[in-house]
C-alpha cells in the first residue's frame, strides 16, 4: 500500500516537474546582473535523469498549491543536495515541492550555483548569495503569490542542508551582494529544516563536499567559524527541524552539532535520529526507519498552515 501511494505521488511529482520544466527564472534579472557572472562559463548539463551540474546562472522555480487562494500561506525555499558540485533537482527538489504543496505550502526550488569543473569553479559565498536572494525574492513577491512574509522557511538536503543552515544562521551583510530593490529586502527566515545535512567545518568528520569550497578568508580561523552554521546559532535563530540516520556516511555528528547549539541557546529544535536510512533518500520510501520523517515534518509544519 505504501509503495502504491508512493508510485502515485512519484507520478504526480513527475507531472508537476514537467509542468514547471520551462518555469525557471533567473534570480537576478537580467542574468548578467548576477554577482560574479561569467559569460564564458559552460552551459548547464544533465549528468543523468536525476543530476545536473555546471549551474552558473542561479534560478528558481515556483510551485503553488492548486485550489482557490485563501489566507496567505507559508512558503519554503528548497535547496537540493549534491556535494556543491551537482544538484539532485528531482529527488530533493520538485518531489519536495509537490509534498509541500499537498500540505498547502508554497514551494520554491532553488537552483544555486554549483560546479564540478575546476576550470570554472563556483566558490563561496556565491551559493549563500543565491540562497539569500531566493528568500528575498519570495518575500518581495509575497503579496503577489499570496504568501505570508512572516512564514518563510528553508529546507535543505545534504550539502543543501549546509546551505539552508547557513541561510538560517547568517547575520549581517554578505560581501558581493548587490544593492537593488530585492537585495534590500530582508533575507531572514522564520524556520529551518535540515535533512541529513552537512554542517561542521574543521572537525574530523567534516565532509568532503565542504573541502575546497571556501577560499580565504573563509578557509580558516574566524572565517571557518562563520561558515560552520552550528557556531553561528544565537538566541534569535528561528525554530529548527533536523533529520539524520545513524548509519549515514555523512556523520550524524553534523546534525548533533547544530542541535546541541540550538539547545544551548534556547532555540526550539525537533531532532529525529533514525537507526537506519543511509543518505540521499529525499521523501522516497526505502523500507527503512527514515521513511517516517516526512510524517513527522508534516506534524511540525501543520501549525503554520492556515485553516481552510
Describe this structure in words.
This protein is an alpha/beta fold. The protein has a single domain, classed as Alpha/Beta hydrolase fold, catalytic domain (Rossmann fold, 3-Layer(aba) Sandwich), CATH 3.40.50. The protein contains 8 helices and 11 strands. The chain has helices spanning 2-19, 90-101, 126-140, 142-145, 159-169, 221-226, 253-265, 293-301, and strands at residues 25-26, 45-46, 52-53, 59-63, 73-79, 86-87, 106-111, 147-157, 191-195, 240-245, 269-274. It has an 8-stranded mixed beta sheet with strand order 1-4-7-5-8-9-10-11, with helices on both faces. α6 (221-226) links the parallel β9 (191-195) and β10. α1 crosses α2 and α3 (126-140) packs across α5. The longest helix has 18 residues, at 2-19.
List keywords for this structure.
single chain, 308 residues, alpha/beta, Rossmann fold, eight-stranded mixed β-sheet, three-stranded antiparallel β-sheet, 11 strands, globular, disordered N terminus
Amino acid at each position: 500500500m505504501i509503495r502504491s501511494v508512493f508510485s502515485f505521488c512519484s507520478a504526480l511529482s513527475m507531472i508537476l516537474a514537467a509542468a514547471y520544466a520551462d518555469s525557471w527564472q533567473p534570480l537576478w534579472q537580467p542574468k548578467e546582473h548576477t554577482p560574479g557572472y561569467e559569460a564564458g562559463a559552460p552551459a548547464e548539463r544533465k549528468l543523468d535523469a536525476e543530476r545536473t551540474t555546471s549551474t552558473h546562472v542561479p534560478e528558481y522555480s515556483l510551485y503553488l498549491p492548486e485550489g482557490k487562494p485563501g489566507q496567505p500561506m507559508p512558503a519554503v525555499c528548497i535547496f537540493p543536495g549534491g556535494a556543491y558540485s551537482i544538484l539532485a533537482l528531482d529527488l530533493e527538489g520538485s518531489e519536495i515541492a509537490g509534498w509541500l504543496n499537498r500540505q498547502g505550502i508554497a514551494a520554491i526550488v532553488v537552483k544555486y550555483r554549483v560546479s564540478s569543473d575546476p576550470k570554472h569553479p563556483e566558490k563561496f559565498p556565491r551559493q549563500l548569495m543565491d540562497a539569500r536572494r531566493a528568500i528575498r525574492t519570495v518575500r518581495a513577491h509575497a503579496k503577489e503569490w499570496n504568501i505570508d512574509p512572516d512564514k518563510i522557511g528553508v529546507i535543505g538536503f545534504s550539502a543543501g542542508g549546509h546551505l539552508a543552515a547557513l541561510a538560517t544562521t547568517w547575520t549581517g551583510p554578505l560581501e558581493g551582494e548587490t544593492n537593488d530593490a530585492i537585495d534590500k529586502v530582508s533575507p531572514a527566515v522564520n524556520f529551518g529544516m535540515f535533512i541529513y545535512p552537512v554542517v561542521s567545518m574543521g572537525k574530523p568528520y567534516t565532509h568532503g563536499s565542504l573541502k575546497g569550497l571556501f577560499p580565504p578568508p573563509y578557509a580558516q580561523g574566524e572565517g571557518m567559524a562563520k561558515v560552520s552554521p552550528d557556531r553561528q546559532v544565537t538566541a534569535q535563530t528561528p525554530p529548527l527541524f533536523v533529520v539524520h540516520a545513524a548509519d549515514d556516511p555523512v556523520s550524524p555528528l553534523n546534525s548533533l552539532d547544530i542541535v546541541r547549539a540550538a539547545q544551548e541557546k534556547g532555540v526550539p529544535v525537533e531532532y529525529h535520529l533514525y537507526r537506519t536510512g543511509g543518505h540521499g533518500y529525499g521523501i522516497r520510501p526505502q523500507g527503512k526507519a527514515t521513511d517516517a520523517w516526512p510524517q513527522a515534518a508534516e506534524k511540525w509544519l501543520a501549525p503554520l498552515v492556515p485553516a481552510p
